[in-house]
Amino acid sequence: MPVGVLALQGSVREHLDLLERSGGKGIPVKTLRELEQVQGLILPGGESTAMGKLLQDGGLMAPLAERIRRGMPVWGTCAGMVLLASGIEGEETVHLGVMDMTVRRNAYGTQRESFSVRDRIPEMGLGEVPLVFIRAPHIVHAARSVRILKTVRGAAVAARQKNMLATSFHPELTAETGFHRYFLDMVEEAGGSRMFTAP
Ligand code: GLN
């Protein structure tokens, strides 16, 4: 079964290309039917308010949240991180609300809206990789069960909670395949445990 990239808005093509270059098979997911065909899902960067509205309007929000709660591996990049969060600073509502963390949108302010650094992420088994931040969120609070994988400039920008991965930055806008390989490993592990627990 392939891995999906939520294709309502945002950097969809870039994720599909990198999935392929990382040895995976990716398909765009716009409908419930397509969601049923994937064993993991990437929520791309873009605009979280727009994506949240399209998820609601298309009837995907509740079924997607349910599949994630049941263990489907999911990875949110940038706006995707905002979609996953159980809290958004200064806002009353959340989107999927499945990952126990509060995020701050556009956390780097208007003057430094976009920047890029190179750094290692030993927690993900990655050597020096490019980290591209575009109007990026960061994590301001996380439950103990959320493992912070990376901090940049003192702020948490990558985290994992069970089957959920969130990054403030955009690996899909670089040539780096390490993050996609990490996610494909998560998908493979989830597949393995499902087989193991089958009756
Ligand atoms: N600022 C956007 C949001 O909150 C995210 C930006 C991005 O994905 N590059 O939705």
UniProtKB/TrEMBL annotation:
The keyword rRNA-binding does not apply. The keyword Hydrolase applies. Its EC number is 4.3.3.6, 3.5.1.2. GO terms for biological process: L-glutamine catabolic process; pyridoxal phosphate biosynthetic process; pyridoxine metabolic process. Pfam families: SNO. It comes from the Bacteria. GO terms for molecular function: glutaminase activity; pyridoxal 5'-phosphate synthase (glutamine hydrolysing) activity. The active site is at C78 (nucleophile), H170 (charge relay system), E172 (charge relay system). L-glutamine binds at G46, E47, S48, R105, I134, R135. Keywords: Glutamine amidotransferase, Hydrolase, Lyase, Pyridoxal phosphate. It catalyses: aldehydo-D-ribose 5-phosphate + D-glyceraldehyde 3-phosphate + L-glutamine = pyridoxal 5'-phosphate + L-glutamate + phosphate + 3 H2O + H(+); L-glutamine + H2O = L-glutamate + NH4(+). GO terms for cellular component: cytosol; glutaminase complex. InterPro entries: Class_I_gatase-like, PdxT/SNO, PdxT/SNO_CS. Catalyzes the hydrolysis of glutamine to glutamate and ammonia as part of the biosynthesis of pyridoxal 5'-phosphate. The resulting ammonia molecule is channeled to the active site of PdxS. In the presence of PdxS, forms a dodecamer of heterodimers. Only shows activity in the heterodimer. Belongs to the glutaminase PdxT/SNO family. This is Pyridoxal 5'-phosphate synthase subunit PdxT. It comes from Anaerotalea alkaliphila. The gene is pdxT.
